[in-house]
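User: Okay, second chain of the day. Same drill as before: sequence in, structure tokens out.
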Amino acid sequence: INRSFADRSAEYEPVGDLVEGSWNPKDKDYDSLATWAVDDKHDTVRMRIPWSMLGLADPSSRSALGEGRPAPLVTIPGIVFDVTAQGSTERLDFTWPTWTRVSYVQRIKAGAIQLEKAYRDLAP
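Assistant: Same drill. Structure tokens below.
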């Protein structure tokens, strides 16, 4: 089937479903899908939310989806979070530098050794 993007219906992610957990694979509360974690040592809440869940089309240029249909691309200065804890609300303004180059670090993911063994066991 050859369909254009205009023919596809929108897919929505339930953005209210934030999952608490640890991002450390050695931790008992490890969850690779966790979106937030409490860092007691630094008295901090850390969040790891995909750019798309925040409505960003291109985070490298701070381009977000605007209002309307079709949604226009708009440039935003950053994101505002309202965080409520123990009856108190704090407004947090978050911004980030734009970029044109991506850096990365190679690593072996959890389960790679088991997958390698499974493939080796299947080989004749």
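The chain is about 10% helix and 25% strand.

User: Thanks, on to the next one.
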